[in-house]
Amino acid sequence: MAISLVQLEKGIMGIVAISPDLEDILNSLLKNVVPKAWSIAYYSVKSLANWNNDLKERYAFFELWAQKGQPFVYHISYFTYPTGFTTSLLQKFSRKAGSPSIDRLELDFLT
Q1: Range of the domain at 86
Q2: In the predicted model, is pLDDT for residue 13 greater than 80?
Q3: How far is 24 from 28, CA to CA, in rounded Å?
Q4: What is the pTM assigned to this prediction?
């Protein structure tokens, strides 16, 4: 994202040629939609402004996790692949001594 924005800025200033990819990013920014090149971060149907705010919150959550250790509460929506995360939780619990096998475990979610 940062590289494409720098290149787009240079293209607007006339320093570099605007490629079709940069043109797509520019058009997406003007329409307040997430550019296709950026959607690899995670899929969302949110507007660009809301997607950007969500991305900042996700980053802050994982940064805090990395700095302070494992949290007690997880925002499942912050995970790109939440099923992989929940499966890893089941695996971790099932490997403890005296725990049931993973196929006998279930997760319950509060709403």
Answers
A1: 81-111
A2: yes
A3: 6
A4: 0.71
